[in-house]
Write a structure and sequence with these properties.
141 residues; alpha/beta; Alpha-Beta Plaits; 2 domains; three-stranded parallel β-sheet; three-stranded antiparallel β-sheet; HflX_C; GTP binding; GTPB6 protein; ribosome binding; P-loop_NTPase
């Protein structure tokens, strides 16, 4: 669903390495949507003072120091959700019914916040559009 190209930005041949990787990927006859959505990651930015990527949409990280990793995780999540047609939703469920169990089977439950005062929970899920449609049909309230 996603290609992440991590480059050692301090390597003297980093531009040539990128060109080589892109050439190999193109020769693999991958779908154009996959090639167009490559996440370009410049690693080892801690070794270059005040590094700013000159390439459009490149993310600057330092794996050693953790710099930029949160932004990278967010970008990966966003691209994967787009590629798979899924979305992140927060759904209020009645804990006395079967909704929570259904969500655990049909979606990816990320977080459950129980509201004991009214017997409900806020459930944060990753779910496909079709599964969410089924959920709404099964549990219209």
């Amino acid at each position: 669903d996603l290609i992440i190209h991590v480059r050692d930005i301090t390597h003297p041949e980093t531009i040539l390495q990128k060109a080589t990787v892109l050439s190999v990927l193109k020769n693999l006859n991958l779908p154009s949507r996959l090639l167009d959505s490559i996440v370009e990651v410049h690693n080892k930015v801690d070794l270059i003072e005040r590094y700013k990527p000159t390439e459009e949409n490149a993310l600057a990280i330092s794996a050693l120091h953790g710099h930029g990793l949160e932004e990278l995780k967010q970008e990966i999540e966003k691209k994967i959700l787009t590629a798979t047609g899924k979305k992140i939703l927060t759904i209020n469920v009645n804990l006395e019914g079967p909704q929570l169990s259904w969500l655990y089977k049909e979606a990816t439950v990320r977080e459950v916040e129980v509201m004991p005062e009214d017997g409900t929970a806020r459930v944060k899920v990753i779910i496909s559009s079709s599964a969410f449609g089924r959920y709404k049909n099964l549990f219209p309230n």
